[in-house]
Structure formats: C-alpha cells, structure tokens
Amino acid sequence: MSDAALTTVQNAARLLKAFLSRDELLGPSELGRRLGLGKSTVHRLLTTLTAEGLLEHDPRSGGYRLGIVMFELGEAVRVHMDLHAAAGPVLGMLREETRETAQVGVLDRGEVVYVDRLESSHTLRLFTETGRRVPAHCSSSGKVLLAFLPQRARADLLDSRPLPALTPDTITDPALLCAELDQVRARGWAEAVNEREIGVASIAAPVRDHRGDVVAAISIGAPIIRLGAAQRRRLARPVMEAGDAVSRRLGWTAPATLPPASTRPARATTTGRPAHADR
For the domain bounded by 71-249, which CATH number is listed? Predict the structure, then answer.
C-alpha cells in the first residue's frame, strides 16, 4: 500500500472515531476542524464512507451520522465477544461428556471459521486450529449454518460459488446439498462423515442469539472409528443440548422440547451404497 493510500485509510479511521464524541450529527466544517484536514479531503472521505454505508447524510442539517453498516459491524463484534464468553464453559462440559474435540464455528462468506475449540484427551485426535477456515458444504458446522440461513440468502450463497470435492463423499450437487440442509433444519442437527477428510466424522447443532437467529454452530469431531453411526445417533442429543445451553447464555428462550435426534436418511451414491456409511 502506498504512503498516500495509507494516509487516506488513517484519515478515514480518524473521521469515524470522531463520532465517539457521542455527537449524533457532525458537519464537514466541524470534522475538518477536529481532524485538522482540509475541506476537500473531508468531503472525499465523507462521500466514500457514505457510499459504503458507514455514514449517513442528513439533508436537512447537512450533517453526518454513523450509518447502519457501523451498527451491523458493532453487532458482529458484540456477538463474537458474547459468543466466546457463553460458549467456553459449555464447550468444556461437552468435551467431558463426549470425550471428543468440541468447537464453535461461525459462517463467513461460505466458509466456517472455528472461533473456539477444546481438544479431545484421546491420543488419536483431530488437529484443526482455532481460526482455521473450512468449506461450509462439507462440514457438519457448515451444514447447520447453511441450513438455518433464510432461503434466499442460502440460494444466493450457493449460487455464487462452486462446491469443490475434497473427498469422494463430498456433496457437490447443489440440489442434493439443499435437500440435506432441509433435513438438518427439520431435525436440528447435522453430521458430516468422510466429506472433508476420509476417516473423520462430526456432529453439529445450532447456537442462537437472543432473537433466535442462528449465529454459530457447536460441534464435536473425531476419527470415525470412535464416531460411527451408532455413536453419532447417541451423541446427537448432547450436542443439541450444548447448542441450547450456549443459546440460553446468549439470551435465547428455548422451546419446551427438542427435536428428535433421528439419523439422516442415507444418500445414494453411484455405487448404490449409502454415502454416509462408515468406511
């Protein structure tokens, strides 16, 4: 980045920070005075930040206020900070109950980012670092997060990117993926078996905020020798209960009953075998 571009970014950041003064509206002249910037520089910054939704212009007063995008960014920061505090104790209990790696992931541009994680005590375990990104379509957390998106948002996201095959069992057909996502939404949990990595399975359930919106997924993952079909059916319930526990800590009021932890209907492959059968 050139020195001029870096200066522009710094000036834009300083301009936005000027609104920390709690003044609802600030005019160009006042902003220029506070920041020590010329009129033309302030005007360019205001025009750009307004176009991006970071500021809003009040035509009656001629002043500017923080825009809706700043509110959305603040909400995203708050949710992630609250999520870390809410999920930590529950992750510990989930790991102790299942003896498997427990983690929390959020959706970002079609990928799952794991923001919190506790490793299994088993010698044979997974090695996915906190902060790592994985494609949403082939992970249980990603399936949960995609399943609970509004239909239009889900369709737009899936239409905007390919579904790469990481293994022979990865779902690459959008229609098949959407059918499975509908099942995930109906039963309240997702699984991924051999879909991102051969020999690995995982189970995930939604985490909701105080409005009931799904903002994250909580999951366990393990080598498939420890997380076969019977174990997944048994552990789906504690994973869903962990998701509800984190949600309650975020202010969500849980329904009276949980959906049944039934197994996923088998997907037929070209070989005729169930696609999620343990290999």
Answer: 3.30.450.40
